[in-house]
Amino acid sequence: MNAPVEPHHMHAYLTGEMDPQDQTAFESWLTENPQNQAAFEQFKSLWAQMEPERAPKLQMDRVWQKIEQSCGLSNKKKTKPALFRWWAWGFPLAAVGLIWFWLWPVATISVQSGPQEQRLVSLPDGSQVTLDSNSMLTFPAHFDRAERSVTLEGRAYFSVEHDSTRPFRVQTQAAKVTVLGTQFEVWTPGSQTRVWVAEGRVRVNPLNGDPVELIQNQQIACDAQGFKSDIATRNAQILDEWIKGKLIFERVPLHEVVLSLESVFGKQIEVAKDLPTDRTFTGQFERDQLANILQEVCLSFQYDLITTPEGYRIQARSTP
What we know:
Blueprint: H1 8-14, H2 20-30, H3 34-48, H4 60-71, H5 83-89, H6 93-103, E1 108-112, E2 119-122, E3 128-131, E4 136-140, E5 148-153, E6 155-159, E7 168-171, E8 175-179, E9 183-187, E10 193-199, E11 202-206, E12 212-214, E13 218-223, E14 226-227, E15 232-233, H7 237-243, E16 246-253, H8 254-265, E17 268-271, E18 280-286, H9 290-301, E19 303-307, E20 311-316
Parallel strand pairs: 5-7, 17-20
Antiparallel strand pairs: 1-4, 2-3, 3-6, 4-5, 6-9, 7-8, 8-11, 9-10, 10-13, 11-12, 13-14, 13-15, 16-18, 19-20
C-alpha cells in the first residue's frame, strides 16, 4: 500500500473500509510478533471507548504534526512514508491511539436522582455509589490510568475499590475529596461540602485552603474559602440507615435537619430568623410524607408549622 500514513488507516480497518490488499498486508503485520497484536488491542480498546457520533472531525495536519513530534521527525523532510514502511520503523500503534485520545473526548455519564429517590450507581472501576435524592453524579465512561475522578452535586455514599496506583477523587464546587479505597459520604448543601468517613482515610482539600485528613467516624464541613467547622466525631453507623432509605438525625441542629429534608423532598422549608440556632433534634423517619415529618420536628421544639405557596415555614408558636 503506497498511501501516506494517517490515523484514519486504523479507522478504515476497524470499520471494514480498508481495501482487500491493504487489509491482507495489515493482518500479516499483526501476526509478525505479539507486540504488534498487543499494540493493536490497545488501540481497539481506545476506539471502543469513543462515541463516533460525538467525535470532532480530525484535523489531519495536526495529527501528522503530533506523529512527527513523537517520532522526533520535526526537523526532517516532511515526506509521509507509506503505511507499512511506518510499521517497519516500529512506531507503536499505542502512540496513534494516544493521538486519537487527545483529539476525541471520552464520553461522560451523568446520573441524576429525583425527589425521595435513591439510585445505586456502579462506576467503571467497580466502586459503588448510593446517590441520594435530588443529586447528580458525573463520571467518565472509563477512568484513565492516573486517577479516578467524579463530580458530585448533592449527596452520595461512596464505597470505593482500593487501587494504590489510582487515587479516587470526588470534585464538588467547594472542595476535592481524595481516597485510595474506603467508604464515606459527601454532601453539598448550598455552597458547602461535608464529608463523613465510615471506613478508611479521606483527604479533604478546599479550593482555597490546606487539606485535612479524616479517619473513621470523623466529619468536617468546608466551603471554597476553607473549613467551616472543626473535625467532629459522629457514629458512621447512621450512614447505613440512610442508605436503606431512612432519615436519621442524632443531636442535629434544626437548620441541618431542614437542609436534609429540602434535599430529600425538593421542597422549600423556611425557618424564622428569630428562632434559636443551638437546639438540636434526634429522631428517625421513613421517607414518607414531608408534612408528617415536619409536624414531629416542630412538636419536639414546640414550634408552629405553616404551609406556604413555596413549601413550609417553621416559626415560634403563637400565643393565644
